[in-house]
Specification:
The chain is 71% helix and 5% strand. It is mainly alpha-helical. The chain has two domains: 62 residues, Orthogonal Bundle (Arc Repressor Mutant, subunit A), CATH 1.10.10; 138 residues, GntR ligand-binding domain-like (Four Helix Bundle (Hemerythrin (Met), subunit A)). Strands 1-3-2 form a three-stranded antiparallel sheet. The longest helix has 27 residues. The radius of gyration is 17 Å and the shape is globular.
């Protein structure tokens, strides 16, 4: 995991740990230690402890009294529900960004940064631009509750899968189409494209999980 250099809240810790579990960096049965994770992320133990409780409630981990947690098998029901909620929120953020109007110049700039990162195979840099694009749309929606909620369930795409780079290319093609729809203030297109973008992530993780189960 990379150190979190901004927005050092339990939400970001939750998002980082959830991503590590969903994309297979942590396997079922792996042990998670509060102190170790806090050190890796560059945060105090408090947000890690709070993140553990949230992930425990989601069923992704089991927390023990000794500040240790164990990764659970991922439920396909959880995965479906998680991405269904995220798709709804991304669609609404895109709709509101269209209604409010959004400066697409910074979005295009991050899109180009992402293309450069992909060209050199730098998935970490791609992920930074990936998050920046989404975060700008959430902010443009003008709904602080929506922005906080969607940020809390955000899943980055960095992984060691052989197909990760191809996925990044497809993801950034989605970004370009979404940005173009936002620029035209085409609400229906922006909403549909945003939903499909999230569903691509869902299918990728679902296939990985099903393959693992087999």
């Amino acid at each position: 995991m990379r150190a979190l250099t901004n927005n050092l809240t339990k939400d970001r810790v939750v998002a980082e740990l959830r991503k590590e579990i969903l994309y297979g960096s942590y396997e079922p049965g792996d042990t998670l230690y509060q102190e170790k994770i806090a050190e890796e992320l560059g945060v105090s133990r408090l947000p890690v402890r709070e993140a553990f409780q949230i992930l425990h409630n989601e069923g992704l981990i089991t927390v023990k009294p000794n500040k240790v947690a164990y990764v659970n098998e991922i439920s396909l029901d959880f995965l479906r529900d998680h991405f269904a909620v995220r798709a709804l929120m991304e669609k609404e953020a895109a709709r509101l960004a269209c209604v409010n109007g959004i400066d697409t110049a910074p979005l295009y700039e991050e899109y180009r940064k992402a293309e450069t990162a992909i060209a050199r195979g730098d998935l970490s840099a791609f992920d930074d631009s990936n998050h920046a694009i989404h975060a700008m749309i959430w902010e443009a929606a003008g709904n602080v509750v929506l922005e906080r909620m969607i940020s809390s369930i955000w899943n980055t795409m960095i992984s060691s899968e052989e197909t990760a780079l191809e996925y990044a290319k497809a993801s950034n093609r989605d970004h370009l189409q979404i940005i173009e729809a936002l620029e035209k203030r085409d609400t229906e297109a922006a909403m549909t494209l945003s939903e499909n973008h999230v569903r691509r992530s869902y299918e990728r993780i679902r296939k990985r999980i099903c393959k693992t189960v087999k």
